[in-house]
């Protein structure tokens, strides 16, 4: 395929269409910046669809005294509950305390109060339940050594849909564009402008775009990608893999979400949602190809064993699993933190300027993406001789997905066709997994509202991610 002609220069090109790429595009769009987002696969198809799907301050970060991070994240959680109630909801989380727990119950009670305090008491207030009350709520919970349970409130979010809706909101502005299944293959600085070579991975077409600034928001892929593109960069990530299981809804009697501590002093979450139970996560170094990670038998067993220790009588087996998924946290490595467990690595983000016309952001959490992007935009927009207005992202999103997560979504053929034509769908996989929040697998024969991939004239999947 030949090289297509140069498009007019952009002010900013963003590489990476996860939540941070989509979030920054929205912020720049609302501030009148001419910007292009380039994503190698489907939007939000990597880390930003593999999270624990929580908008949270991170109750366990209180242990690390990360109070500023917890406070900021709680503010953002409470903001998104208001801005996108169709994709986010507040849920009670039970935190059972056992005799073997490393802290006395009073430690948890203090932590729960502090959590509410750091939310400026915007969280629904925490509660405390006696053993008998906990067992009434969770009849299958192991009673041996159980003392009581704390209960506090956090948010859950449809992670890939919120990223998509930030993208749709950005695309309302006419000066903004976004390309999926386009891979950035080379970046050079020519006459003070960034020249970015890209390849359409579905058609093979090569393109070149120019921009005043390039921003790399490539999450866990950053350390491998940047040197390959020719960007001056030494590794700065402490990548940390985490897996999740979607379990059948009748696997355990869990009417509410739970936080369970594991034998190795970690916490795992059990969150009933979407007619299933989400269980996760793990925290291990990445051994396989970072673009093609999956849950290993060992990791699945770890979560099943942890769950069984709390629900010894429940029929939890491999057959309870609907599907699994894995992601890599793009944690920013801390100076002098060698040997720290990955769980202790701070969730703060870091912004770098490897050249005078490029930016890189790593670290952080999904929950705080708006604030992280705000920090980046506040540096970039004034350099374009434009006024930066940070509060524009406090407005509601103007476009919603055709099918939301929490509404009762009986999908019709018309709705499917509408999603394909308006929501930047390029493969059947995009439609199936990400637009419709399906948890199972699919084949060529799979029908959505009676329509197959062939009926919709879509390739089944994109090329392999690697
Ligand atoms: C197991 C796990 C659980 C988590 N749970 C939570 C949680 O409950 N709450 C929370 O707040 N946070 C959570 N996080 C953290 C959160 O998911 C991440 O911080 C966030 O999703 C990172 O988003 P991102 O946009 O930086 O990265 P990504 O979503 O990975 O986006 C980077 C994108 O760059 C693209 N890319 C790479 N190379 C190229 C190229 N050459 N050209 C074009 N594009 C390219 C990739 O395809 C990818 O889509 C969790 C993370 C994990 C792994």
Describe this structure in words.
The chain is of the alpha/beta class. Among the domains are: 10-48 and 160-237 and 343-394, FAD/NAD(P)-binding domain; 240-329, D-Amino Acid Oxidase, Chain A, domain 2; 409-466, no CATH class. It is 25% helix and 25% strand. The protein is built from 10 helices and 17 strands. Strands 3, 4, 5, 6, 11, 12, 13, 14 and 15 form a 9-stranded mixed beta sheet that branches. Strands 1, 2, 7, 8, 9, 10, 16 and 17 form an 8-stranded mixed beta sheet that branches. A hairpin with a 2-residue loop joins β16 and β17 (358-363). The two termini are 21 Å apart. 45% of the residues are buried. Mean pLDDT is 91; it is low at 1-6. Flavin-adenine dinucleotide is lined by residues 15-21, 38-41, 45-48, 50-54, 56, 183-184, 217-221, 225, 242, 281, 327-330, 364-367.
């Amino acid at each position: 395929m030949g090289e297509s002609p140069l498009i007019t220069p952009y002010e900013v090109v963003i590489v990476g269409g996860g939540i941070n790429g989509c979030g920054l595009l929205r912020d720049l769009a609302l501030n009148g910046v001419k910007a292009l987002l380039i994503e190698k696969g489907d939007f939000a198809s990597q880390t930003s669809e593999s999270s624990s799907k929580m908008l949270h301050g991170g109750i366990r970060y209180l242990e690390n005294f990360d109070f500023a991070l917890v406070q900021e994240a709680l503010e953002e959680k409470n903001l998104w509950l208001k801005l996108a109630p169709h994709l986010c909801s507040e849920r009670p989380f039970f935190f059972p305390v056992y005799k073997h727990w490393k802290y006395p119950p009073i430690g948890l009670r203090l932590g729960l109060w502090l959590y509410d305090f750091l939310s400026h008491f915007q969280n629904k207030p925490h509660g405390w339940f006696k053993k008998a009350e906990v067992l009434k709520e969770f009849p299958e919970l192991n009673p041996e050594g159980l003392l009581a349970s704390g209960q506090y409130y956090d948010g859950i979010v449809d992670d890939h849909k919120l990223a998509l809706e930030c993208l749709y909101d950005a695309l309302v502005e006419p000066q903004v564009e976004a390309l999926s299944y386009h891979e950035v293959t080379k970046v050079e600085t020519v006459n003070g402008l960034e020249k970015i070579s890209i390849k359409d991975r579905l058609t093979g077409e090569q393109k070149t775009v120019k921009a005043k600034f390039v921003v790399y928001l490539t999450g866990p892929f950053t350390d491998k990608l940047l040197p390959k593109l020719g960007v001056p960069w030494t590794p700065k990530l402490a990548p940390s893999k985490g897996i999740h299981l979607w379990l059948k809804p009748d696997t355990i009697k869990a009417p509410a979400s739970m936080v369970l501590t594991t034998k190795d002093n970690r916490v795992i979450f059990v969150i009933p949602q979407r007619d299933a139970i989400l269980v996760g996560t793990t925290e291990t170094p990445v051994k396989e190809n970072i673009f093609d990670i999956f849950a290993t038998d060992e990791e699945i067993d770890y979560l099943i064993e942890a769950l069984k220790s709390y629900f010894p009588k429940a029929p939890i087996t491999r057959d309870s699993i609907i599907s699994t998924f894995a992601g890599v946290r793009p944690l920013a490595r801390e100076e002098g933190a060698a040997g720290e467990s990955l769980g202790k690595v701070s969730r703060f983000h870091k912004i770098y300027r490897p050249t005078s016309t490029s930016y890189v952001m790593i670290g952080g959490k999904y929950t705080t993406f708006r604030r992280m992007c705000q920090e980046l935009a506040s540096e970039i927009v004034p350099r374009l001789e434009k006024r930066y207005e940070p509060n524009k992202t406090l407005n509601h999103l103007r476009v919603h997905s055709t099918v939301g997560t929490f509404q009762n979504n009986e999908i019709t053929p018309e709705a499917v066709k509408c999603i394909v034509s308006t929501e930047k769908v390029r493969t059947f996989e995009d439609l199936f997994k990400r637009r419709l929040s399906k948890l199972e697998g699919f084949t060529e024969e799979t029908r959505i509202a009676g329509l197959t991939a062939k009926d919709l004239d879509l390739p089944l999947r994109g090329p392999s991610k690697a």
